[in-house]
């Protein structure tokens, strides 16, 4: 068991990140929508959720990626299959370009809506709800990225996948 410690840490942290992100989609967003019908409050609550996670998530993804890099290097150094762990790490950190490519626009729209609400120009409920629900769906997809990295890492750890 000691021989799989580093890989196991990477798999667990990646899957933990996936679960944390998915919980926002499955629990937090529905609660936000169910507990207010004030669009300004909804977009402001979204901002609070976003600000709570936008530092922690990338830090966990980066740490997980680095642990996978270390696992790959450790395997390479002793002549074992290492590429699967490099792939798991690359998959996990691909959460960053996904976020920048697919979520930045919706993030900006929600920040604008919250900023305007702070100036007394409240978005309609339909617009606020649509933006928050769309963000939630994109976030759920994002949760699958570190899960995919974790599955690749787990298959490599169990020696069910190698290349």
From TrEMBL:
The keyword Transmembrane applies. One of its GO terms (molecular function) is monooxygenase activity. Pfam families: Anthrone_oxy. It is found in: Membrane. It comes from the Eukaryota. It is a multi-pass membrane protein. The keyword NAD does not apply. The chain crosses the membrane at residues 6-34, 55-73, 85-103, 140-162. Keywords: Membrane, Monooxygenase, Oxidoreductase, Transmembrane, Transmembrane helix. Its main location: membrane. One of its GO terms (cellular component) is membrane. InterPro entries: Anthrone_oxy (IPR013901). Belongs to the anthrone oxygenase family. This is Noranthrone monooxygenase.
């Amino acid at each position: 068991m000691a021989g799989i410690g580093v890989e196991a840490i990477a798999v667990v942290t990646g899957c933990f990140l996936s679960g944390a992100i998915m919980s926002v989609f499955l629990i937090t967003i529905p609660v936000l929508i169910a507990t207010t019908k004030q669009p300004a409050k909804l977009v402001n609550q979204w901002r609070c959720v976003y600000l709570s996670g936008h530092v922690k998530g990338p830090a966990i993804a980066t740490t997980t990626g680095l642990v996978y890099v270390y696992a790959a290097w450790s395997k390479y150094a002793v002549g074992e299959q290492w590429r699967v762990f490099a792939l798991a790490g690359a998959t996990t950190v691909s959460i960053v370009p996904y976020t920048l490519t697919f979520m930045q626009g919706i993030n900006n729209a929600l920040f604008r809506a919250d900023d305007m609400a702070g100036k007394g120009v409240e978005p309609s409920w339909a617009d606020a709800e649509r933006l928050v629900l769309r963000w939630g769906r994109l976030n759920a997809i994002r949760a699958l990225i570190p899960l995919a990295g974790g599955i690749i890492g787990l298959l490599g750890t169990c020696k069910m996948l190698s290349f």
